[in-house]
Structure formats: C-alpha cells, structure tokens
Write a structure and sequence with these properties.
Elements: E1 9-12, H1 24-30, E2 41-45, E3 52-54, H2 58-75, E4 87-90, H3 91-94, H4 109-119, E5 124-128, E6 130-132, H5 143-162
Length: 164
C-alpha cells in the first residue's frame, strides 16, 4: 500500500496502546538526512539508554532480552531491539526486498525483516521509547509459535554462515 501510494515512509505501531504516539516525531525526524546520516529503518527501542518497559513481569523481561540477544548473535544485527514492532521504514528500501521470500508468519517476522534489510544494505538506527504493557487484547504467542520463531532465526543465521 505504501509503495503503491508513493509514500516515503511507512510506520509500524501496535494497536494495543503499548506504543505511545509521543515517540513518532523522534522516529520520523531520525529518518531525515538533515539530522545526520540517512537512515532506512528507525526502531523505537526499549534497550538503549532512555528506553525501557513498564508493567512487565520479570519472566517477560528476561524472555525479551534473551530473544534479542539470540537474534543479534544469529543474524549479525547491531540494533539492541530486534524484536520490537515500533518502527519507521523508508519505503524505497522495503521495495528492494523480495517480500515473497519472507518465511515468518508470526513473531520472528520483525527479526527476519531486519535481517533482510541489513543484507540489502539498510542503515538502521534506534531511538529510545518506553514500552507499556498492552492496555487491550492478549498476546497470541504460545510454545509452538516461540519454537517456530527460534527455528526461523537459526535458519536465517545459518544462511549468514554459508554466505547465501
């Protein structure tokens, strides 16, 4: 849709009120080349100075940190928040991807798109956000989905090692 309508940027934001709109100006201005190096992906990050989470039990914090470390290690990514969904993308960079090749249909989608963008030469930056636990709805993740996500990340990481 963003490509068809010639948008410059595409924003991804959770609809459960966990991503506050007050961070949108920082995300969009971070994409502007006048504010430094041009950026293709701006991540609203929980895991850089100034970022964080509220309302999360320790188990969820540990799981999220672990998934991010795993993704950074397997996929050779530099962002600290690879699993977060609060992002601004440069549409021209998304157009370079073969979105039909995406394997993920669940929670590993965020990491897979970053991996694809990284391999396409995208410049990725982060801006701090405070992520609030959802006010509406429930998480749809379950054990099967978690194992599938870990497997997909490992498969993509193996592709890094064999050079494909």
């Amino acid at each position: 849709y963003a490509s068809e309508h010639v948008y410059r940027h595409m924003l991804n934001i959770d609809a459960d009120f966990s991503h506050h709109p007050r961070y949108l100006p920082a995300m969009i201005s971070g994409m502007d080349p006048a504010n430094g190096a041009p950026v293709d992906v701006m991540i609203g990050s929980r895991y850089i100075p100034g970022g964080g989470t509220t309302g999360w039990p320790m188990r969820r914090k540990l799981m999220s940190r672990g998934v991010n470390l795993y993704a950074r290690w397997c996929l050779w990514l530099s962002p600290h928040d690879c699993s977060g969904g609060y992002r601004c993308y440069r549409v021209a960079m998304l157009e370079k991807l073969d979105l039909g090749a995406v394997q993920s249909s669940g929670y590993s989608f965020q990491e897979e798109i970053l991996w694809m963008l990284h391999r396409a030469g995208a410049r990725i930056a982060e801006t701090p956000i405070i992520f609030a636990d959802r006010e509406r709805g429930q998480s749809k993740i379950n054990g099967k989905e978690a194992v599938t996500a870990l497997r997909i990340i490992a498969t993509l990481g193996a592709r890094n090692l064999i050079g494909r």
